[in-house]
Amino acid sequence: MALGVHSEVGKLRTVMVCRPGLAHRRLTPANCGALLFDDVIWVDRAIEDHAYFTTAMRERAIEVLEFGDLLTDVCADRVARDWILDRRIVEEEVGTGMSRELRTWLAEMRPARLAELLVGGVAKAELPFDARGLFGGYLEDSDFVIQPLVNLIFQRDPSAWIYDGVVLSPMFWPARKKEGLLLDAIYHFHPRFSGAANMWWGGDLQQHYGAETLEGGDVMSIGQGVVLMGMGERSSPQAVTQLARRLFAANGARRVIACQLAKMRTSMHLDTIFSFLDIDLVSIYPEIADRIRCTSLYPGDVPGEVRYERHEQTFLQVVAGALGVHTLRVLTTGGDTYAAEREQWDDGNNVLALDRGVVLAYDRNTYTNQKMRDAGVNVIEVPGGELGRGRGGTHCLSCPVERDPVEL
């Protein structure tokens, strides 16, 4: 089967993940907020829990691609290595005083070590040369010359597969903006991906995207050529419109449903308050989902034109209509008011479907998991005490690359 994601609940064939590692060992109480984590994590336990997560998928014959391994393969290619370093080690980022020495040092590394540092970051104290220039003198020994990309663990966001193509995300926060460069290198140079998929949008992350920001947690290919796109804290209407135009021009989708969310960390992405469990069964956090306003985007009569239709219906009614089902079966976050708010915060509504009615979910969300089981869902629990400290569940931890369509 060709690469592509054709539903949210069809059989998952291939998925990309990124295990915790060096980047997370650099998290401290002082820097975790700027790096978008709520707390430091117990890294060794997080590694064990992530291995549990990936093993659960491999046991169901799902191909699991590890980001670090893919990046190591790419860094072994001299052309690809130069391509990355030409874009990552630039004077605008590391100053004029050390850019040449830093690039030379990195270029001579073994592929695995280079891949580790591109994700894990480099502190001034680790440099084998004197950090000259104004920037070098400005930094303390513990400051980063290359920032750690701690959020790459949440592989959902820096790219998203939409039917038979992929989009690279121009991301919202500075802490995440460099992730796309490494994904771009993997999609461009790795033999598993090179030439194997359409690049819908975002292929040149050196471009200035202005107010166009988009993250994969806001993107869901739900089938029938329909794509849901959240617009909240991270993804902007400018980006949604631009991506819709690109999809329509390439016949990559026939309809985009823009879902306007409250701009808050609790609902940073659409998938933090809404997940599919089966074709017609969804998990939602109603306190936020009930306030979503929807607008559908369609191809216009003129190439490049987009037609808009604002909906008075509820979010769930719009989604049901797009799928051609009369109503969706709805499971709300479990427990009383207090428990529901806690479990939404702990990603109770952010679950990954491995197939129809089979999901991976964090073990800590006991009330919500039981409601899913009562509805006939096979819930495979994953330890979530450490992995969730950056506010992401199993849906966030994964980037599906191949997923079957479903018959509606």
UniProtKB/TrEMBL annotation:
Name of the top EC class for this enzyme: hydrolase
Intracellular or extracellular location(s): Cytoplasm
Pathway where it operates: Amino-acid degradation; L-arginine degradation via ADI pathway; carbamoyl phosphate from L-arginine: step 1/2
Residues annotated as catalytic: 396 (amidino-cysteine intermediate)
Domain of life: Bacteria
EC number: 3.5.3.6
One GO process term, biological-process aspect: L-arginine deiminase pathway
Gene Ontology MF terms: arginine deiminase activity
UniProtKB keywords: Arginine metabolism, Cytoplasm, Hydrolase
InterPro entries noted in UniProt: Arg_deiminase
UniProt-listed SUPFAM superfamilies: Pentein
One Gene Ontology cellular component annotation held by this UniProt entry: cytoplasm
Enzymatic reactions: L-arginine + H2O = L-citrulline + NH4(+)
Entry-linked NCBIfam families: PRK01388.1
Protein family membership: Belongs to the arginine deiminase family.
Matching PANTHER family: ARGININE DEIMINASE (PTHR47271:SF2)
Name of this chain's protein: Arginine deiminase
Organism: Paraburkholderia polaris
Gene behind the chain: arcA
